[in-house]
Specification:
single chain; about 725 residues; alpha+beta; Four Helix Bundle (Hemerythrin (Met), subunit A); Alpha-Beta Plaits; Helix Hairpins; 6-stranded mixed sheet; 5-stranded mixed sheet; 22 strands; about 40% helix
Length: about 725
């Protein structure tokens, strides 16, 4: 990160995280307002706050281009909020906000590149400035107009009152002087970031020095005298303000300013009788205060009123301390943790699980009667299970985050393709491991784009002619099933034309058997072959034949599977099955000759010892096992992998009935060893060229005796037979 000084890594990480979250929040607000066809006052205030925060934090990080762009956006929404102009060109406003959001996101991505240089946002800033002129005058500026820069350089109104001197502060304000750590540098911008954080809790806020954003020399004043914050807030908001000050980066200490520092004129103004102190707030205070802040408080409870200058500094200190102590009881505290640390923690838990297996399964203990050891090992297993559950729960995040990102994609494609489509979420609260979430963005994006481009009909007239609603629907749904998460991307469009797919596959030389032998499911899955596309022209969204291939590879990379189901004229479903976690699975160890394999428990239906009347042959002489009047293909695992079994007699072995993706089969093994919780270890990249996943191997693990076992991928074993 060459744009930043050494030692700022943690600040950069926090800036990236917070700014990305704020921009995603901005997109959600804008899409909601676009859907409702109106801006609520709350929406405008939230957008203003987002841009104000990004402006301040970008300035603190020295990212002037981002800070300036955010500042212009803030100016624009300040005018919308205060002057409430009639906006006839509302589409231009949405385009400006969305394009600005995209530029800021792209710049944040570049921050993680050591060789990146700041992007020039002057063209986008010019668009915003022109639109600001339109908001003020009702027309876009021409060549004869006054330069926009002269009009838009005026600071936002919220910055002007905050920059007043100390002696203009209200008499009943609480004053806190903040001191930053020695040699932390950019004290003025750190003060600005602190002001941005506490502003949402304040009815009234002022600070000294006043020009911390524009005058870098104020950093020296802050070093010498500290940073004075003056505010008015409701009782319940004091604890938030103090907590923000305590948790702020590089804050060394703070103190409540004593009464003597209050100017005499202000102190005299604080002298009226108690009943006058309860007068209604000033109009500007009432406008910004929450409803609870202006409600009348009973006279017999003066403790709920804000501290006044008549109180001593000690009283204020005691009161604020009392609030903090009270707030700390029963509150939920949240912190941001680097994902790499969670990965290391998970790896460590995996090693503990392996070490536990090595201890409890040590061959030196065979034949020994050790009741105390067995009791202790059971307790150890219980604790490691609990530790694993806690670590996994820390890493689990809801799918709502990745689902919400698809809203923006649908919105942009609706505009460019001229299609009217609703995006519906179901089960978005379903949780999966964070590492899986990170690998779902691209697959879901390609599937949603495919549904928008290929699935939904081109015109409303075409849909109405088919007896469908004029507006199309794309649904993202998720649910848990047998230790897996199922994600379905469905549309109510035209479905897949099997004949057209077959013609394209034949023209591209992709057929591996006669056309008549292909089932509909096999034809549907052809759309995920490399280079396959039914579009004859390459567009922004399709025609290159790479999108669905990326989907398949990305899903398989995280141990999942993807399949396609469709009905022509009614719609298409893309079905993704992924594990809840990539790290630790419960499995059954089985042996084939001298080799040991692990079968995931969620794939096993039952174990069977075959009888003579249960074995049959189909017309192609393949073995079939009959179980309760249902027939299943038999897969001899030693033949599948070319191993030498202990016995070739099928009745000497054990049959495992397994199921995956709606298909079942019987797998013959020599014997069952037992249940074991195993840590999934990925294969070395050197094995990628052998496509071993298609050979039914999803990973490996280390057993208690130190030997390595293969974890079977039941889905690929079934579909390979």
């Amino acid at each position: 990160m060459s744009r930043f000084e050494s030692g700022m890594e943690s600040m950069v990480d926090m800036f990236i995280y917070e700014s990305t979250s704020l921009l995603e929040q901005l997109d959600q607000i804008m899409m909601k307002t676009e859907s409702n066809n109106k801006f609520d006052e709350e929406d405008i205030n939230e957008i203003f706050r987002i841009m104000h925060t990004i402006k301040g934090s970008s300035a603190m990080m020295g990212l002037e281009n981002m800070s300036t762009l955010a500042h212009r956006m803030e100016d624009m929404f300040f005018i919308i909020r205060e002057e409430k102009p009639v906006i006839e060109s509302i589409e231009t406003l949405y385009d400006i906000v969305f394009s600005s959001s995209d530029l800021l996101k792209a710049e944040i991505e570049l921050l993680q590149d050591d060789d990146s240089v700041p992007t020039d946002f002057s063209a986008q800033i010019k668009k915003i400035e022109d639109f600001v002129v339109y908001l003020k005058t009702g027309k876009m500026p021409g060549a004869e107009d006054t330069p926009v820069s002269e009009k838009s350089e005026q600071p936002a109104e919220d910055e002007q009152p905050q920059g007043q001197a100390e002696n203009s502060a209200s008499a009943d304000m609480v004053r806190i002087r903040v001191f930053f750590e020695d040699n932390c540098e950019m004290e003025n911008l750190r003060a600005l970031l602190l002001v941005n954080k506490i502003s949402e809790y304040c009815r009234e806020l002022k600070y000294e020095p006043a020009s911390i954003e524009t005058d870098s020399s104020t950093a020296k004043q802050i070093i010498e005298n500290g940073f004075l914050i003056m505010f008015n807030a409701d009782e319940e908001d004091y604890q938030h303000i103090i907590r923000e000050i305590e948790d702020a980066i590089n804050v060394k200490s703070y103190e409540i300013v004593e009464d003597e520092e209050i100017p005499a004129a202000a102190e005299e103004a604080a002298a009226p009788a108690p009943e006058t102190q309860k007068a209604e707030p000033a109009p500007e205070q009432k406008k910004n205060a929450p409803e609870a802040a202006v409600s009348e408080k009973p006279a017999e409870k003066p403790k709920t009123e804000a501290p006044t200058p008549a109180q001593t500094a000690e009283q204020i200190n005691n009161k604020l301390a009392q609030k903090n102590n009270h707030a700390s009881k029963g509150k939920q505290s949240l912190i941001s943790v680097n994902l790499n640390k969670l990965d290391q923690l998970l790896d460590m838990v995996g090693e503990i699980v392996i070490a536990e297996a090595m201890v409890t399964s040590n061959p030196d203990l065979k034949g020994l009667k050790l009741d105390g050891f067995q009791k202790a090992s059971r307790q150890l297993r219980k604790l490691t299970d609990e530790l694993q559950d806690i670590v996994m729960s820390i890493r689990m995040v809801p799918l709502s985050g990745v689902f919400n990102k698809m809203t923006r994609i649908v919105r942009d494609m609706k505009v460019k393709l001229g299609k009217d489509v609703d995006l519906v979420f179901e089960g978005e609260e379903t949780e999966v491991d964070k590492s899986i979430i990170d690998n779902l963005n691209d697959p879901l994006m390609h599937m949603v784009r495919n549904s928008m481009d290929h699935g939904i009909e081109s015109s409303q007239e075409e849909r109405i002619a088919k007896g469908k609603p004029a507006k199309g629907t794309i649904t993202l749904s998720a649910y848990n099933s047998s230790g897996e998460v199922i994600i379905v991307v469905s549309d109510d469009g035209g479905g897949i034309d099997c004949q057209r797919v077959m013609e394209k596959a034949k023209a591209n030389g992709l057929l591996t058997k006669p056309e008549e032998e292909y089932t509909d499911k096999e034809i549907f899955n052809m759309v995920m072959l490399p280079g396959f596309s039914t579009n004859t022209e390459v567009t922004e969204y399709s025609g290159r034949g790479v999108g669905m291939d990326v989907v398949r590879k990305s899903i398989e990379k995280i141990g999942g599977t993807v399949s396609v189901d469709s009905k022509q004229g009614e719609g298409t479903n893309f079905i993704i099955k992924i594990p809840l976690s990539l790290a630790i699975v419960d499995g059954i160890e089985v042996s084939v000759g001298s080799s040991i394999f692990t079968i995931p428990i969620n794939s096993i239906k039952e174990f069977i010892k075959l009888k003579e009347n249960q074995l049959f042959y189909d017309t192609s002489k393949k073995e079939i096992v009959k179980i309760r009047n249902k027939c299943y293909p038999l897969i001899r695992l030693h033949e599948f992998y070319g191993l030498e079994p202990k016995s070739h007699d099928i009745y000497d072995g054990v049959v495992v009935l397994v199921e995956s993706e709606g298909k079942s089969a019987c797998i013959l093994v020599d014997e069952l060893i037992g249940e074991q919780q195993v840590v999934v270890k990925p294969f070395s990249p050197m094995f990628n060229r052998y496509n071993i996943k298609q050979k039914g191997m999803s990973g490996c693990t280390i057993l208690g005796d130190g030997s390595i076992t293969i974890i079977l991928d039941i889905s690929n074993i079934i579909f390979d037979n």
